[in-house]
Design a protein that fits this description.
Layout: H1 28-31, H2 49-57, H3 60-63, E1 64-71, E2 73-74, E3 86-87, H4 93-111, E4 115-123, H5 131-144, E5 152-157, H6 161-165, H7 167-173, E6 177-183, H8 187-192, H9 199-212, E7 217-223, H10 230-241, E8 247-252, H11 260-266, H12 275-291, E9 295-298, E10 301-303, H13 310-316, E11 321-324, E12 329-332, E13 343-347, H14 351-361, E14 365-370, H15 373-384, E15 391-392, H16 393-399, H17 405-409, H18 413-420, E16 424-427, E17 430-433, H19 435-438, H20 441-462
Parallel strand pairs: 1-4, 1-11, 2-3, 4-5, 5-6, 6-7, 7-8
Antiparallel strand pairs: 8-10, 9-10, 12-13, 13-14, 15-17, 16-17
Length: about 475
């Protein structure tokens, strides 16, 4: 199963995940092209004639973008986490605020974005940031582009008593959606995960968030935890659904090399569920959520009453996004520089170094890669097939006006076999996974990517 591990959007959107049913994901080679040396810019960002024409035909895609803002500090490091975060120490709040504002302004200028579709504050623990910093970033964004009054503005919240008490201030600052990191309702499991809150803290935080932003609260929960059984998981999920709002994100626990939890499992001090049990947990969660009125709109995300995350939908639909803050990732076309190709950008990881770079140059972009047309189409497939709706023909044509899905994938024997097995659907609506296929996405992607690459190679040879 191809499942999005818990991570901040904009920080690791294209991360490949541990498979539950079919073994470790085998298509890392398709993503290896996105790794590059610090400071390197690859290729000719002015683009080929074909790529320039494609960009013109989907110009609207370059005129709007989401913004991801990364707050890198935490009070402690969770035992399973290997993301870009730093234990909070003497942080100059004024300096961080000024640098986040300045980088937001610079990237908006570089991208020439005229409309901001959503803003997401992730981390780290962004609920440790002063609400005044959140307000300042939003005000800066609104000064340099159109930020609609009803645009989704999400803040990730660590459900500690301190975090819950500040939610009202964050709402005043401009936040209108909270994503609460519940992770578990079992205190012992929270201790093993290294979390600094209790189950009661989490429930109180969810209740306060719902009071402030009813219908706009998401809860994150991790399954596959050490010692967890399928029965315990189903009971816990039912309890969570009795108190949660209208959005749930499920994340399979993945043991990341170098983390404390990984070392404990390797040493035999802790055991995690077997892959078949993990698969059972995921399948039962989908059924339970469905009975409670939640629609699965993405591999790991479920919503009812239309409470879909518009910010995350922008990622999955291959929209532009600006990554602000240490270690943030972005995808946008730097039109102010006269570029026509979208670039994959990564900001400097270390906060102290990032601050110096922003103060000197206005931004802390460490790495940038112009994405060739084939690479962009790969992202459209990789991200779009995570959605239950898949990739529509209309959406595909925005990125590939001269080669539709049927032309690119319809003649593939491997793709036809996946359809015959009931895992994939290619019809007049577009390309999407079936219910069974969505749980096996990692095994479906390699032949699709290979066929896309072969079609691109044939087109290049003819050209």
């Amino acid at each position: 199963m191809f499942v999005l591990l818990k991570c901040s959007p904009g920080l690791c959107v294209l991360r490949t995940m541990l498979s539950v049913k079919t073994g470790t994901c085998r298509f890392r080679a398709a993503l290896s092209r996105y790794r590059y040396r610090s400071g390197e810019t690859r290729g000719n960002a002015s683009g080929s004639g074909f790529e320039q024409e494609t960009e013109k035909k989907c110009g609207r895609l370059s005129e709007e973008a989401a913004i991801y803002v990364h707050w890198p500090y935490c009070l402690r490091r969770c035992s399973y986490c290997n993301f870009n975060k730093y234990i909070s120490r003497a942080v100059s709040q004024a300096t961080m605020r000024e640098c986040l504002e300045r980088e937001t302004e610079t990237l908006l200028h570089l991208s020439q974005v005229s409309r901001i579709t959503s803003v997401f504050f992730g981390g780290g623990t962004p609920s440790l940031a002063p609400p005044s910093t959140i307000a300042a970033v939003l005000e800066t964004a609104a000064r340099h582009a159109h930020l609609p009054g009803d645009a989704e503005v999400t803040l990730e919240v660590n459900p500690t008593p301190a975090g819950a008490s500040s939610l009202g201030d964050f709402k005043v600052a401009g936040v209108n959606r909270f994503s609460v990191g519940v992770q578990s309702l079992h205190d012992e499991d929270l201790r093993v995960l290294g979390r600094d809150h209790s189950s009661q803290d989490a429930l109180r935080t969810v209740a306060e968030a719902q009071r402030l932003c009813p219908g706009r609260v998401s809860v994150d929960v991790i399954f596959g935890r050490p010692g967890q059984t399928a029965g315990l998981w189903e009971t816990e999920l039912e309890e969570l659904l009795s108190v949660c709002d209208d959005h749930v994100s499920l994340y399979q626990l993945t043991l990341e090399r170098g983390t404390y939890l990984f070392k404990q499992v390797q040493a035999g001090l802790l055991g995690v569920p077997e892959e078949n049990t993990m698969a059972q947990m995921y399948d039962s969660a989908r059924r339970i959520l469905g009975k409670r009125g939640f629609l699965q709109y993405e591999v790991s995300n479920f919503a009812r009453n239309g409470a879909v995350s518009s910010h995350n939908m922008n990622y999955w639909k291959a929209g532009q996004y600006l990554g602000v803050g240490p270690g943030a990732h972005g995808r946008f076309t730097p039109r102010e520089e006269g570029r026509v190709l979208r670039e994959a950008r990564t900001q400097t990881l270390e906060p102290d170094v990032w601050i110096k770079e922003v103060q000197r140059w206005g931004h802390g972009t460490r790495r940038r890669i112009p994405l060739e047309h084939l690479e962009l189409l790969e992202e459209v497939l990789l991200m779009g097939l995570r959605l239950a709706e898949g990739v529509s023909h209309e959406h595909w044509r925005q990125f590939s006006p001269d080669a539709d899905l049927q032309k690119v994938l319809g003649t593939s024997i491997e793709v036809q076999e996946l359809q015959d097995r009931g895992l994939l659907v290619l019809d007049d609506r577009g390309l999407r996974c079936s219910w069974e296929g969505l749980a096996l996405l990692d095994s479906l992607l390699p032949p699709l990517l290979l066929q896309l690459q072969e079609h691109g190679g044939q087109k290049g040879a003819r050209g």
